[in-house]
Specification:
Length: about 375
């Protein structure tokens, strides 16, 4: 017999809300450039008045999605959810993945909204709903590929803001990358935590040439030096590189995680909720990594403070997450949000409200397009 609570938690409405956020600067990586964060919100409301929010931010060169494809996919997924109990979120998420095997970014928004709603219903902040604890996390700040003058300007700005870990994108021109890295190390000093991300910009030979050129710069790790599906190349580079290697674009699913572990392709992994298709899959990845004693980073794309706060809850709750790339919304202009995690002096501080602890502002919702 179904309980009254279960009946009341049937999903009554599901809104799809596209929204764009201007960036302070163009963000350039080895495979694409971003001028505006073109995101999609998912809003789930149950019959008894509980709600949950999720967000998708697609990087087309990484996940193969755009705002337009996310909207179309969301409209196809919505009928699966309407009339179903939000208490059955694990079942709903599993059905969603069977219905639509790809489109991980928009699926992550549906997943996030369900987890937000369930945590609100339980009157728990999301990190407690995951069964984890609250901790202060030091995030890096990411520099896109740019000339030396622009690199210096942005670096000094971020150092003044208190960031002591800097990640910079590389992978287009090794000599220019080396010049930028030398500049960052010179300005930041020996205590600056320096990380790099090639975003699949090299083949295995170019990767080793570059990483050996960077040998003296005390780089903590390099993310994804080779193409996503080239696990043999990833292992080849990882086995020979003077810089530790972190799998990123090679890691979308729990199956990917198992293959990386089985092949010993990389000693570290970057979990991104947008790549994994949501928290449910990310939890499985984290458990695989924990069993294999592979430390992870929790990464991001160009999400607003809403999703970035949700990511921070996940990162706090799972001890295998030891590195934090939670700077998604730093440099966004005019985010229409209330609440959320705060970043002060490079540290991320979580809210304690039930669920994610961040919602769109009412004045934004009054005029936002709802599909």
């Amino acid at each position: 017999m179904r309980s009254a609570a279960a009946d009341g938690c049937r999903i009554e409405a599901l809104e799809i809300i596209p929204f764009n956020i201007a960036l302070e600067d163009v963000f350039r990586i080895a495979t694409m450039s971003v001028e505006t964060a073109e995101n999609v919100l998912i809003h789930i409301v149950t019959e008894d008045g509980f709600e949950g929010w999720g967000e998708a931010s697609s990087f087309r060169a990484i996940v193969g999605e755009t705002q337009g494809t996310n909207i179309a996919a969301a409209q196809a997924i919505r009928p699966l959810f309407l009339g179903r109990s939000a208490l059955e979120y694990r079942t709903l998420i599993a059905e969603m993945h069977r219905f639509m095997p790809y489109n991980s970014t928009i699926k992550s928004a549906f997943d996030m909204a369900l987890y937000d709603l369930a945590a609100r219903r339980a009157q728990l902040p999301l990190y407690h709903f995951f069964g984890g604890s609250k901790r202060v996390m030091e995030t890096d700040m990411t520099l896109g590929i740019s000339d030396l003058e622009e690199t210096q300007r942005k670096l000094r700005k971020y150092l003044d803001m208190g960031f002591r870990k800097i990640k910079t994108k590389v992978g287009l021109d090794t000599e220019q990358d080396l010049q930028r890295l030398n500049l960052i190390r010179e300005i930041g000093g020996p205590d600056l935590g320096l990380r790099i991300d090639a975003n699949q910009g090299w083949d295995r030979n170019k990767a080793l040439t570059a990483l050996n050129a960077f040998r003296s710069l005390d780089i903590e790790y390099c993310e994804q030096p080779v193409r996503r599906h080239d696990l043999e190349g990833l292992k080849y580079v990882s086995d020979r590189s003077p810089v530790p290697i972190m799998a990123d674009e090679s890691l979308f699913s729990p199956v990917d995680a198992m293959n990386i572990v089985r092949m010993q392709a990389a000693p570290m992994m970057n979990i991104k909720i947008s790549k994994s298709g949501g928290f449910q899959q990310a939890i499985a990845i984290a458990e695989i990594a924990a069993a294999a004693h592979i430390p992870c980073m929790l990464g991001c794309m160009s999400e607003s403070g809403l999703a970035n706060t949700a990511f921070a809850h996940f990162a706090s709750a799972f001890e295998i997450v030891q590195f934090f790339d939670l700077d998604a919304n730093v440099g966004h202009l005019g985010e229409p949000l209330i609440g959320g995690a705060e970043i002060r002096e490079g540290n991320v501080y979580l809210p304690d409200e039930p669920g994610i602890g961040c919602v769109p502002a009412p004045d934004f919702l009054e005029t936002a397009p709802r599909l």
